[in-house]
């Protein structure tokens, strides 16, 4: 009985290790993400959310060769990026990308200004 419990415990531990190791952030290199939705909180959230939905509708973010390219309304901007775990850092941008996190098959950009916080979701 002790041997059976030891085997079951070892198998369970191996499965848990596999699950936790497999939960690392997705590598964004070579992928394109498309605007999904935004969530806005703070004063005037509904109006800001509607404006952002219209502004980001059809927008994409692509990652290739160390460049992050955002395309919206027919124009594109590319900046260098690095990924450290679930965090993406964009360098040298004229557009404020805010904080960018990888979450599952999505990218979430979070920006705050004047008491309003927006989370903009892009999915692969």
Q: What is the succession of H and E elements?
A: HEHEEEEEEE
Instruction: Tally the beta strands.
Output: 8
Write down the oligomeric state: single chain
Rg, alpha carbons: 19 Å
Spans of 5+ residues with little confidence (pLDDT < 50)?
1-22
Shape: globular
Mean pLDDT: 81
Question: With helices defined by DSSP (H or I, 4 residues minimum), what is the helix count?
Answer: 2
The description of the largest β-sheet is: 8 strands, antiparallel, barrel
Q: Residue share in helices?
A: 25-40%
Describe the strand arrangement of the main beta sheet, using strand numbers: 1-2-3-4-5-6-7-8
From the helix content, strand content and strand pairing, which structural class follows?
alpha+beta
Strand content: over 45%
Straight-line distance between termini: 48 Å
Structure description:
With 124 residues, the chain is an alpha+beta fold. The protein contains two helices and eight strands; from the N terminus they run H-E-H-E-E-E-E-E-E-E. A hairpin with a 2-residue loop joins strand 3 and strand 4. The N and C termini lie far apart (48 Å).
């Amino acid at each position: 009985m002790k041997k059976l419990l030891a085997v079951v415990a070892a198998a369970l531990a191996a499965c848990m290790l596999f699950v936790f190791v497999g939960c690392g952030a997705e590598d964004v290199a070579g992928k394109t993400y498309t605007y999904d939705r935004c969530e806005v909180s703070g004063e005037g959230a509904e109006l800001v959310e509607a404006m952002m939905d219209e502004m980001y509708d059809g927008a994409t973010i692509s990652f290739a060769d160390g460049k992050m390219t955002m395309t919206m309304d027919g124009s594109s901007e590319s900046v260098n990026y690095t990924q450290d775990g679930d965090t993406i850092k964009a360098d040298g941008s004229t557009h404020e990308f805010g904080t960018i996190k990888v979450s599952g098959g999505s990218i979430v950009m979070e920006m705050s200004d004047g008491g309003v916080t927006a989370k903009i979701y892009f999915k692969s």
